[in-house]
Structure formats: structure tokens, C-alpha cells
């Protein structure tokens, strides 16, 4: 009897994401098994239970997906799962907590694409201000953008100290230099946006962080990308389906949530398919996270341009 393709879904949350379950089935996995409330200390045991129970032919037909909401914990879980395996008992692992890695990857890939296509410029040296900077998408966008040479500002809308603590940890871990700016008042936010090249709106759904008044004063602004698809949108004047459309009353181009979401969907689908074995007899397992997602999102845009 042919063994089924199984995806083991580890999450620290109390529920597995239906989005991720649907994506896994649509990518071709025959079985998806969720494990909820998973602690970091349990990842090694769960991983080894998975890889040692099916033999060499079976282990090639399974993968591990890491969900949750915490990007740092997801990366730790991916590392723990990787270290728990050894050849030939090894399978691919893909971390995408709350879809943040693939969403952030798609967002920055879109920003980079429109900078080049509309303005013939790159991310290097551009001031990228992130609103909603401590959420899973915003923080991951910051890390990817900083690694591409952007000057990343994490905008604190409540506690500057809290954001600074997180930024310090990310800077040390990823060898980058993100800074924290105080956006706790509208006046301070206006000052930030006036010196911004690229604005990222990654706040909670239904929270507008940039109004037309803000955008009208942002003479330096080139791109506004919004991940919010729930009204009111994160940036006034940027429609959910905008994909490089000029924002009325400005010289900046808008990227809406649907444009980001379509690329995110394709990126996640393709990464899930990459976890499955090919015809190569000694194919190495893949360990996929936000940089793998960004690389693929870039390639997808280039292939369709």
C-alpha cells in the first residue's frame, strides 16, 4: 500500500489555522495532522516521533509546518525540529506563523518591484517606516527590508520602550540595525511620514494609521503598502486591489491588501509544494522561513513581469 503524504502542523496556539489546513490540502498533502498548544520543549519529541515511524520511504512523504502567532517562537521551533533530525531520517520544515512570513515576503517583494518598475530605484538606503511594527507581519517586514539595505523605522504607537526592547533582540539576532521612532501622537506621526520613502501599514484589521492629511504632507513618500483588507483600510486612498496605482493627491504609489494577498497565497502554495519529494533519490530536506518566502516571491514577480 502506498504511503500517504502527511503534514504535521505544530502550533503554540490553542487552534490550528483553518487557512493553513486548507492550503496544505490544496498543495497536495493527503493528511494534515494538527498539534496545538505545543511548547518549544516538545518539538524535538514530536519531530522524532514523526520521522522514525515510517521508514525511509515514508519519511520522504511527510513534512512539518510550524504555525502560531509569534515569529521568534516559530523560528526557534523550526531550529529545534531541524536539530532533532539527521540523515536519512529527515523531512522538510516550513515556518509561517499566522501567514506572517509569506505575507511580509509578498509585501516587500511588491514594494521592491514597484520601486524598480515605477521609479527605477531599489530598497537600498530608503527610509521604511512600519506602522504596526510589533505584530507578526510588521516585524517580519522590518527584518526583511533591513536585510535588503533599507533604513527601517519601527513606529511605536503606544510604548516606545516595549518596541525598543523587541527591536534590540531582532537587531542582535539578524545582525541588522532597525530603529524605533515615537509615533504616539498625531503630530509625531506627521513628522515621521514627512521623512519616509516607504510606508508599511501592518496594524490590526480595521485600524487606519495613515489619513489623506498624513499623505498630503509626505512629499518624500514613494510607496504605501497596506495589509489591511477590513474597512477602514490602513492607508486612506489605497484601495484593497491597488497594485502600484498612484494615490490621489500624492506622488506615491499604493499597494493594497489584495495585491499582497494574491502573491502571498501563491508563495505559500509553492513553498508547501516544495516540501514534497521530487524524483531525485538523494534530495535534501528544505527548511523554509521568511527569507525563502521572500526569495520565491521575488522570483514569482519576475517571472510574471
Write a structural description.
With 305 residues, the chain is of the alpha/beta class. The chain has two domains: 6-95, 3-Layer(aba) Sandwich (Rossmann fold), CATH 3.40.50.10280; 103-261, NAD(P)-binding Rossmann-like Domain (Rossmann fold). It has helices at 18-27, 43-51, 55-59, 71-83, 100-119, 136-147, 160-174, 186-194, 212-216, 257-274, 290-304, and strands at residues 6-10, 31-35, 62-66, 92-95, 127-131, 151-156, 179-182, 198-201, 223-226, 243-246, 253-255, 287-288. The chain has a seven-stranded mixed sheet, sandwiched between helices. β8, α9 and β9 form a beta-alpha-beta unit. The longest helix is centred in the middle third of the chain and has 20 residues, at 100-119. The model has no long low-confidence stretch (mean pLDDT 94).
Query: What Rg, in angstroms, do the CA atoms define?
Result: 20 Å
Give the helix tally: 11
Strand adjacency order, main sheet: 7-6-5-8-9-11-10
Major beta-sheet overview? 7 strands, mixed
Mean pLDDT: 94
What is the CATH-assigned architecture of the largest domain?
3-Layer(aba) Sandwich
Domain Methylene-tetrahydromethanopterin dehydrogenase N-terminal: 18-98
GO molecular function: oxidoreductase activity
Organism: mine drainage metagenome
InterPro entries: Aminoacid_DH-like_N_sf (IPR046346), Methyl-teptahyd_DH_N (IPR015259), Methyl-teptahyd_DH_N_sf (IPR037089), NAD(P)-bd_dom_sf (IPR036291)
Amino acid at each position: 500500500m502506498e504511503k500517504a503524504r502527511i503534514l504535521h502542523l505544530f502550533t503554540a496556539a490553542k487552534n490550528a489555522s483553518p487557512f493553513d489546513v486548507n492550503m496544505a490540502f490544496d498543495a497536495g498533502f493527503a493528511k494534515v495532522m494538527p498539534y496545538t498548544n505545543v511548547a518549544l520543549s516538545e518539538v524535538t519529541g514530536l519531530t522524532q516521533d514523526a520521522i522514525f515511524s515510517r521508514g525511509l520511504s515514508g519519511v520522504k512523504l511527510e513534512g512539518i509546518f510550524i504555525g502560531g502567532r509569534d515569529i521568534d517562537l516559530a523560528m526557534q521551533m523550526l531550529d529545534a525540529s531541524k536539530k532533532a533530525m539527521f540523515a536519512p531520517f529527515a523531512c522538510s520544515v516550513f515556518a509561517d506563523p499566522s501567514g506572517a512570513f509569506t505575507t511580509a515576503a509578498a509585501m516587500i517583494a511588491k514594494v521592491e518591484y514597484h520601486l524598480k518598475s515605477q521609479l527605477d530605484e531599489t530598497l537600498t538606503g530608503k527610509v521604511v517606516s512600519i506602522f504596526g511594527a510589533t505584530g507578526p507581519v510588521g516585524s517580519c517586514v522590518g527584518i526583511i527590508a533591513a536585510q535588503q539595505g533599507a533604513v527601517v523605522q519601527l513606529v511605536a504607537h503606544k510604548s516606545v520602550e516595549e518596541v525598543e526592547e523587541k527591536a534590540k533582540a531582532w537587531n542582535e539576532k539578524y545582525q541588522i540595525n532597525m530603529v524605533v521612532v515615537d509615533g504616539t501622537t498625531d503630530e509625531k506621526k506627521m513628522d515621521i511620514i514627512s521623512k519616509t520613502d516607504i510606508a508599511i501599514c501592518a496594524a490590526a484589521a480595521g485600524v487606519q494609521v495613515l489619513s489623506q492629511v498624513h499623505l498630503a504632507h509626505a512629499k518624500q513618500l514613494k510607496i504605501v503598502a497596506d495589509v489591511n483588507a477590513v474597512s477602514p483600510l490602513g492607508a486612506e486612498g489605497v484601495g484593497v486591489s491597488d497594485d502600484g496605482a498612484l494615490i490621489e493627491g500624492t506622488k506615491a504609489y499604493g499597494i493594497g491588501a489584495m495585491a499582497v494577498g494574491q502573491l502571498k497565497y501563491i508563495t505559500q502554495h509553492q513553498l508547501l509544494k516544495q516540501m514534497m519529494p521530487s524524483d531525485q533519490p538523494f534530495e535534501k530536506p528544505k527548511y523554509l522561513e521568511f527569507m525563502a518566502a521572500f526569495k520565491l516571491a521575488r522570483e514569482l514577480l519576475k517571472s510574471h513581469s
